[in-house]
Structure formats: C-alpha cells, structure tokens
Amino acid sequence: MRDLTNAEDWFVSVVSGRRKGAGAAIARGVFSAAEPIYAAAIHARNFLYTRRILKAAHARRPVVSVGNLTTGGTGKTPMVAWLVGQLHQAGRMPAVLLRGYRSSNGVSDEELLLRELIAPAPVRAQADRLAASERILTDHPQIDVFVLDDGLQHRQLARYFSIVLVDATSPFGFEHVLPRGLLREPMRGLRRANAVVITRADLVDSMTLDAIEQRIHGQHQNVPIFRCDLRQDGLLDPAGHTQSIDALKGQRLFAFCGIGNPEAFFRQIEIGGGKIVGTRRFADHHPYTADELTDLLAKARAAGADIALTTEKDWVKIGPMVKQMPEHPPILRVGVSVVIQNDEGPRLVKLAMEGIRQGDELLKWRQKG
C-alpha cells in the first residue's frame, strides 16, 4: 500500500477527483469558490508587469529562466543542472539563483543538491533574486549569465530567455488554478515561454504527447516544443560508489521520497525492472529525522526489501544520518539525467544562447545610457 499520510497527498487526491465522499465534495466546492479570487489576483499581477506598470529589475548579467505552470515536481532541478552544463560547454560562466525552500535546519535541499550537481558553478538561494545576483557577482565577478530556477512566476527579475517545463504525467494541473487545481496561473502563462520542454515524455504514449503539444500550441502557436526524458542513470551508495541502474532488476525495492511528483519516481523504478514491495511518500522538501529513517528501514525489512531507494533531492538531507543506520537494507539514491529526445538538445541550447546574446547587447546599451 502507498501511504496517503500528509496534507499534500490529501489535497492532490481531492482536486484530482480521486478522493470520493461528502468531505471531498465539500472541499472541492470550497476550493472552487476560492479559485476565481486567486486567478483574478494572478491575472492582475501579470497585467501590471505586462503593461510595465510594475517594472522588472535587470540583473547585471543576462538571465535565463526555468519554470513551470503547475505546483509539484516537473524536473526543474535536473533541467537547471543540464542547462548549466550546456552553457558552460558553450563557453559561458553560469550561476544559479533560486528562492530555496528552507528545511528545519534553515538549509535549502534544492540548493544543496544543485551545489553537488553543478560544482563549481555558484548557487545562491535567496528570496530577493536581484540581491542574490549582486552577492554572487561580488564573490565571482567572472559570472556572465544567471539561470533562474523556478522563475516563471518570479516577474520581479527580467529574463532574456524563458524555458517552461510541462510534466507529461500531470501536464495541466487538473485543469484548474489553485486552490481548485495545481495550476499556479492560467494556461495563458505559456505565452511568456520562449521554449517549452515536456518532461518525463518516456512515461506516456505518443498520442498523449501529441495532445499535450496541441494544448500548448493552442496557447502559444509558434513556441518551440521539446520532449525530454528524466533518465535514471545510476545508483549511488552511502560511500559515493556508483552502480548501474541495471542492478535493480530482479530486486525487491522499498522506495521513499519527499518530492513534488512521487508517483513518477515510483513508476520509473518499476520500469527499471525492480519489484516495489513498499513505498512511503512525504511532503515536498520534507525534513527527515533519524527516527523516521529508522522506521523506514524497519518497514523495508518487514516488506522483505533487498534495497531501499530514494532520490538525490532526499539524499542531501539524509546522507549524514545514513551512516548511523542499520546496514540492511542498504539505502541507495537514484541519479537522474536529462535527455532531450530526437537529439534536439543542441537546438534548445542554441535558442537559449541567442537570448543570452541579445541580453548582453541590451545590458551594454543600458550601461551606456
């Protein structure tokens, strides 16, 4: 059985319609009443920025944004890491700006993970992204482009290229804006995209992907669309040793995570050939305790698991504690890499680089003015 033990799971089960009964129906009614209020507030805010009544600030280097329309996990962190690597290969010196959701010890799990994935590129988590960019330039004046993590709704900072991610397994937030659905803003927000990347494209069929693309083009007719797999490409043990993902085949697995889209994680594991004998999901950005890890391993042993699996995002929070845990079953983390289908990664990078070069020219003009 897969636990539904936290508020996020309850909320998703209600807005998706999976949860039945009078209580769920009443909750959907309350959410439906609140939805127009939230949507109106978002529309007003976007209108003010679009008409430049509210003006976005300009960092002293070009900004590329990676964001999404919906709450929950769409693969932003691996996409940001991929983009940073591609920009570095293209001769740029990127750094990452993100808001950073703080855990109980005051540290952002996404910041910790990105520091591991893109070292030595600088990463700074701070609500004021403009101030964060200045801090980075003080310490690293060689930086010549910023990648804005989760930037679609962050209108305060101007950007020169915007990538919007759409998760193929849950693309449009159950067709409703918060709190009735998972959309952070109405679908017309796609019109601010310079490129759309459909993530987890390998987890759905081609007809579903075609339908998603049609919906996107219904909002933004000419936007280039890319299909992307978030490929599980290796296992890392507590000592940092890497094993092939093929090591999961035929193994009994207990999977746990605190991420925005746990079902996609579980589905990818099953595709890898292992047999899931138990799972546990936590709220996104969950701060683990040693007692919780002990309990998780006890449940894994009771289920007869050979391996306990988690994500890289969860690992950055539990890694220091794992050495104190029982050795069986071993806790392994699953590495993820971005693969743009049809070898179209270079085209996406070329488009981003064109936006960055335009940003370079505009910033030079602004400095002269």
Parts with pLDDT < 50 across at least 5 consecutive residues = none
What level of helicity do the residues show? 25-40%
Structural class: alpha/beta
Distance between the termini: 63 Å
Number of strands: 12
SSE topology string: HHEHEHEHEEEHEEEHEHEHEH
Individual helix count: 10
Query: Strand percentage, roughly?
Result: 15-25%
Instruction: Choose one word for the global shape.
Output: globular
CATH 2nd-level architecture of the largest domain: 3-Layer(aba) Sandwich
Report the CATH topology name of the largest domain.
Rossmann fold
- Rg from alpha-carbon coordinates: 21 Å
* Overall average pLDDT: 92
List the defining traits of the structure above.
369 residues; alpha/beta; Rossmann fold; 3 domains; twelve-stranded mixed β-sheet; globular
Structure notes:
- The protein is α/β, with parallel strands linked by helices and 369 residues long.
- It folds into 3 domains: 7-50, no CATH class; 63-230 and 340-368, Rossmann fold, CATH 3.40.50.300; 232-336, Rossmann fold (3-Layer(aba) Sandwich).
- The chain contains 10 helices and 12 strands.
- The protein has helices spanning 7-15, 22-50, 76-89, 109-118, 129-139, 206-219, 262-271, 290-302, 312-322, 345-368; strands at residues 63-68, 94-98, 123-125, 145-149, 161-167, 195-199, 225-236, 242-243, 252-257, 275-281, 307-311, 331-340.
- Strands 1, 2, 3, 4, 5, 6, 7, 8, 9, 10, 11 and 12 form a 12-stranded mixed beta sheet that branches.
